């Protein structure tokens, strides 16, 4: 039996109210639940619940990429059009390369469920050897975005983001991520 490589995943929830204790954060628990079912590797989670402050978000992203050496960092929340929604701006400020396809795909998936998906401003990209992806804030939307759209028979109609994430992490020198195909089939091109 093959030993699976441990991977490190950063989880950042941005919310003024959750970070100040007005209500419980739902983003990080939703991410841990979905990733715990989808990823077969042992996962070390690095977590942060912070306010919607651009400088704090930038500092946390840098810490997770540069010091914690996360293979992937997911943010949740702060991607709408409201004045305090600054997660995309903070993310873009720390990236070495952007990957626009992630944001495009997230909006395509979300449009199957809500017309307000066009208001989403999620971005993604690479800092060093870390993939950083902004996700929506609601637990249901997190699962839909990562897992994709399925028809009544359970077949994938629109691929979720996570089907491309393991190969992206391969390409940037991160850990080899294996998935549970029942939750999310990772796509890797056939070797020649």
Automatic annotation (TrEMBL):
Organism: Paralysiella testudinis
Record-given protein name: Molybdopterin adenylyltransferase
Broad enzyme group: transferase
Keyword annotations from UniProtKB, A to Z: ATP-binding, Molybdenum cofactor biosynthesis, Nucleotide-binding, Nucleotidyltransferase, Transferase
Pathway(s) per entry: Cofactor biosynthesis; molybdopterin biosynthesis
Highest taxon, organism lineage: Bacteria
Gene Ontology terms describing biological process: Mo-molybdopterin cofactor biosynthetic process
InterPro entries xref list: MoaB/Mog-like_dom_sf, MoaB/Mog_dom, MPT_Adenylyltrnsfr/MoaC-Rel
Enzyme Commission numbers on file: 2.7.7.75
Catalytic activity, reaction form: molybdopterin + ATP + H(+) = adenylyl-molybdopterin + diphosphate
Occurrences of domain MoaB/Mog (ranges): 10-156
Cited function: Catalyzes the adenylation of molybdopterin as part of the biosynthesis of the molybdenum-cofactor.
The keyword Nucleotide-binding is annotated on this UniProt entry: yes
Entries under SMART domains matching the protein: MoCF_biosynth
Alphabetized GO MF terms: ATP binding; molybdopterin adenylyltransferase activity
One Pfam family cited in the UniProt record for this chain: MoCF_biosynth
Biological classification of the source: Bacteria, Pseudomonadati, Pseudomonadota, Betaproteobacteria, Neisseriales
């Amino acid at each position: 039996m093959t030993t699976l490589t441990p991977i490190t995943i950063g989880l950042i929830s941005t919310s003024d109210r959750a970070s100040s204790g007005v209500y419980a954060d739902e983003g990080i628990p939703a991410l841990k639940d979905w990733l715990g079912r989808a990823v077969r590797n042992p996962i070390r989670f690095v977590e942060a619940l912070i306010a919607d402050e651009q400088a704090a978000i930038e500092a946390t992203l840098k810490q997770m990429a540069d010091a914690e050496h996360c293979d992937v960092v997911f943010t949740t929340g702060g991607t709408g059009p409201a004045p305090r929604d600054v997660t995309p701006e903070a993310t873009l400020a720390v990236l070495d390369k952007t990957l626009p396809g992630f944001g495009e795909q997230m909006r395509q998936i979300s449009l199957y469920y809500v017309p307000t998906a066009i208001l989403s401003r999620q971005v993604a990209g690479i800092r060093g050897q870390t993939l950083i992806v902004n996700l929506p804030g609601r637990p249901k939307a997190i699962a839909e975005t990562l897992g994709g759209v399925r028809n009544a028979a359970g077949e994938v109609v629109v691929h979720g983001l996570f089907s491309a994430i393991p190969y992206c992490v391969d390409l940037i020198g991160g850990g080899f991520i294996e998935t549970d195909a029942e939750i999310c089939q990772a796509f890797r091109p056939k070797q020649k």
